[in-house]
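User: Structure with pyridoxal-5'-phosphate, C-alpha cells only please.
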Amino acid sequence: MKRVYMDANATTPLLPEVMEAMRPYWMERFGNASSIHLDGQQAHSAVDRARATLAEFLNCHDAEVVFNSGGTEGDNTAIFGLLRPGDHFVTSAIEHSAILAAAERVARIGVETTFVAPDASGLIDPAEIERALRPDTRLVSVMLANNETGVIQPVEEIGKIARAAGVFFHIDAVQGAGKVPLDVRRFGCHLLSISAHKMHGPKGVGANFVRRGTAMEALLVGGSHERRQRAGTENVPGIVGLGKAAELAMHGLEEGVMERMGKLRDRLESGILEIAGTGVNGGGKDLPRVANTTNIWFDNLEGEALVIALDLKGVAVSGGSACHSGATEPSHVLMAMGLNKRRARASLRFSLLKTATDEDVDYVLKVVPEAVQHLRAISPVAAGTAG
Ligand code: PLP
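Assistant:
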C-alpha cells in the first residue's frame, strides 16, 4: 500500500545528504571533540564547521551557538537558566509543553507566569504581551511558528517590546526553522531554540542561540564543553547532521522550496475544504503560516477515529501535537483559540515534508473524503448521541 507521511511537524526523515555528512562520524571519525590528539581534532573541527553554518543560519556569531539535545532542552534552558524565585514570566497559552511544563515547574519556586491567549486565528497580539509585562518580569518567551496551526507569530514586534522594557526574550523556533528565514538580530531575541529532527536532521540534537553577555545558569554542569554553557561530550554525528540540515534549509529557502510546498499545501487544503462541514483552524487569507502546515476541523466525527482510518489507508497525520497523541484531552492550542471541545477534538493537522509531491496530495485527497464519509455514516457524534 502507498504510504504518505503528512506529519512533518512531529518529525522528519534525514535527507540523504544529511545521512552522508554524518556517516564518517560514527566510526572512522569517532573522536571526542575535547581530546587533543588527531582524532579529537577531527571531531572538534567538524563541530566548529557546523557551528559556523548554524551561525550563518541564525545570523549570529559562532560563539553564540550552543549545541544541545533538541527543542525541549533549549526551551527548558531558557526558563530554568534565567528565572529565579520572585521573577515574573510572560509566555503564550499556545506554546509547546516544553515551555508550559517548565513554567509549571518554576511556579514551585515562586515564579509567576502570565499566559497570553491568542486571538481566534491563533495569533498572539504583541500589545497583549506588552500589557502582561510587570516591573518584576524577567523573561518573555513566544514561539516563532505554532506546531499545530503553523501560524507565524509577530516575534519582531515582541522583540521590540521586550527590548524597550529591558526584559529577556526567548523564541522557540523549533517549527519555524527551515521554513522561514531566521535572523536573531532582526527578531531582537536573547535566546532562540531549534531542533534538528524537525528540519530533516537527526533526532536528539539541537541548538540554542544565546546572545553574547546573556548571563544564565547552565542546565547541565560537568565538563567545560560549549563554553561552560552545556556540559556533556558533544554529539558529533548529530551536530554534523544539524549543520548539514541547516545548510540545506538555507539553500532550500533561497531556491523557493517553501513556495513549492505552499502551493501543495494550498491545493491539499482547498481539496479537503470541498468536503461539507470542514474549516481551517488558524487559517485566513492574510494570516502568515508556515508553508507546510494546515489544521482542519471536520464536523460530526472524532479526530482520533479519522487519524486511525487514514493510517489504515496509508496516510500519517496527527490530531494535535504528537506529544499528546493518545491523550483524550483536546488540543490546548485549539482550545485557547476559542474552539469548543467537540470541534477541537475533530481537528487534524496535515504537515508536509520538504519532499512531498503532487502524487502525495492526490492520494490524500482521494482517501480523506472516503474516510470522512464512512466515519460520518457510522459515527455516534454524527447521530447526536455523543456529548
Ligand atoms: N517546541 C516546539 C514548537 C515543538 O514543536 C517541539 C516538538 O514537537 C519542541 C519544542 C520539542 O522539540 P524536541 O522534540 O527536539 O525536544
